[in-house]
């Protein structure tokens, strides 16, 4: 960006002579570009490139910053590094200088770390005071959870408390199982031999270990001196990052940090809005604060809405506006108690098709649907597959690949007595290992491979795996602990009941029974450790069961439809131009021309169980990813707090449009697909999205509504009638079916 194109705010920041500068930048305001020009300006004033350090959070951000430095005509010798990479360079230098012994082994991948984690799990499980309610599973998922938790404990510097506090105290204050805390403590005992002497080390340890070396009162090694330190995306900083920056800052160091207080959405991992304000000022006395209030991404209407939402200055530097549409969706159920994922997904798909038809050069990869949580993707993925819309998921797995969904599919396969129609070894592996994880099955890798290959070759041997392993609770060589034994006994009882009702219940009812009687919510709390992780998995399970019930298919039909849908999904993801499905958290730092934000309802977004300030900031991040159009999908009859706070009613009518309810607008199913849609060229029968296949209405007396609902009928809140799809078996609903003349069908 040439200096003539820089805004007055940017030029003021670039030329500012202060020693410490904190920049409050709104979304899309060019803060990285501004910081790169700050570096180039200092170089032109005579500051050597070798004396400048730029700190970022990810390798991708490092690459972007280097590009901005090149555009600003800064030297390529300016050092740009992530916090872990810079900490590793310090540790390596100290080790080479003989100040510390350093790490004997550096582990570059989670796979390399896994044996050490498994050893810590086993040692903690064998302790006399081992947590009797904790699952000491030797699984990859458990290892991943432990790594995430230790990253959090080290980033927040909470790990320092392990020297002075008991496992019970730490577990209670951090809302963690005592068993997990004990494993983390055991892992650190294995890793840390003495001050500066480590048996092994990984990327997540680097900043924490460097700070540990520097925290000693006397004898700490020297740090390199930097004339200028630039910290980008400072809103992602946690206590460890703040501490490292403070250690690097000397009397002659200039510090420039830039971020957006409204984009602090990683508080679980230690980020805090105070680091964009009072906490930074306390740590770096004399700091001056300057704003970047003009966005190059958001048009005037969206900028004004963001300003109203946050209460901070937010203007637009765009010549064109961002079009905003507010569309409502309805609820399912006669009591209005559940949010209609199907109706909202239909509205989203309708909007996407209109965007695709709007111009000749419209491209799917210009569009993104941003979800509050990944569990919301199930209905939407099914509709995209049904209509042949190419898509990709970012930040989460497609619902076919989620461990909780694979476990539910595994239950239906057990009910059927076979893994068929699944035949691909990778899919067999996913289902078996998901079942094994919930059942606490301790298999070696060789045992898993053998079981997977056997069942893939002989699908009916799933019965043997179920009876011989998943429900085994005897006192043999591999006897499970008490918690696992109780779960397996309950699992055996539930599966027997489901097998007995296989001919009478559809897939949705089978899964609902399993979820209720297996206490899956409690199990996920033990398996996924932190409450917000367990909540997301529990919601994903509920969403999948709702979808299964809505199809009305029996277990075998439903499994066959899933297999076909998964194959179509894989094919769609190979298209060059793909729509993006992402969670809001994973969308931070990105932008698209067209952004759709569905399921805006209390309990969904905002999540009633989450901290209200972070929920509002999540919404801010979501809306500010859009440049050309933003579509907000709100629940009919409910005033959404964040949409209301944007004060869109005060904006020009040409920029803000309000859509009608789903049942009033022209339904998508009556519109032809656009010529560019793969589904238009290769039609296929609907098997996974009955909302798009028409409705057969029923005459159900009020006193029989529960019976109809249990069989899979759904409530139309507009027509005030129960309905089924033509694909559902009509014999179950015969007494409620009517002809157009009013006689029995």
Keyword list:
745 residues; alpha/beta; seven-stranded parallel beta sheet; six-stranded parallel beta sheet; 28 helices; 23 strands; disordered C terminus
How many DSSP H or I helices? 28
Main sheet properties: 7 strands, parallel
Low-confidence stretches: 334-340, 660-693, 739-745
Order of strands side by side in the largest beta sheet? 16-17-15-18-19-12-20
Percent helix, as a range, is 40-55%
Mean pLDDT, to the nearest integer, reads 85
Q: What fraction strand?
A: 5-15%
Rg over C-alpha atoms, rounded to the nearest angstrom: 28 Å
What class, by secondary structure content? alpha/beta
Backbone shape: globular
**Quaternary:** single chain
Number of strands: 23
| Cα separation of the termini | 71 Å
